[in-house]
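Hi everyone,

Forwarding the result from last night's run.
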Amino acid sequence: MCDETAKLVAAAAADLGEAPTDDEIVAFVKTTFIPATRDEIARIRAIGLPAADSNKLNGVLFDMEAVLDDLAADPNKVLEEGSTVFDDINRRLDDYGLTACGSGTDSSGSTDTTPSTVSS
């Protein structure tokens, strides 16, 4: 599930080219990254969470939605020097073992495509 979203976001990020403008990055965040990530959260919730980890994972999903809400209100945040809006969430997902949903690494060696890395 997260792999599919990561591939979609990575393909759209690749279309931005080597040196996207700030406006292109902001448009990518608004039209691709935020909707794809919200859809991923909805799909995760739809399949359900393990009962033993439900509180922990719901907390991460809630925090993801809060970051997405902040980005939707001000997508220019991803342009700030050293922007790391998803670092804590990625770490928590990685710690749980969901690296494809967190840092974006998987067995194929794909990498993170969250806005903080897209703009760097």
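The CA atoms of residues 15 and 111 lie 16 Å apart.

Cheers,
N.
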